[in-house]
Design brief:
This protein is an alpha+beta fold. The longest helix is centred in the N-terminal third of the chain and has 18 residues. The model has no long low-confidence stretch (mean pLDDT 85). A hairpin with a 2-residue loop joins strand 5 and strand 6.
Length: 137
Amino acid sequence: MDFNLHNNDEFEYIATNVEGTEVSEDIIITKNAINMLAQQLKDFIIDLSDGKNYFVRLFLLSSPSKAKKYSLKFESVINDFDRIFNIGQLQIVVNRKDLFYFMGVIIDYVFNEKEEGYVFLDTSDYKVIDYYNLKNK
């Protein structure tokens, strides 16, 4: 994947506001991912019709092999240890403990002839860290 991290038309930067961090440790979300999250969240809310306020939660799952699995979901409960970030109308929530794992990560949405889904990339070398809901076509 080829990114120009200096082109603000392609990305939104989430400053984590963790003391001592730099811009390189922001969470970076591509406009593709933001647009897809907003659409999927809208569809999710319409399907539920329960009147609750939903947001996107970024979190880690631990596997039996102790490997961390990057993930996201739509949720309506904010906990005491959550950090809340806003990108336009989209609200992103990350638990303080998981926040450090998302620092310096690019979240993108891939849609091509081979695959579709969210991809988590390392900002230092653009290598894939993890996939979420990636479907092979």
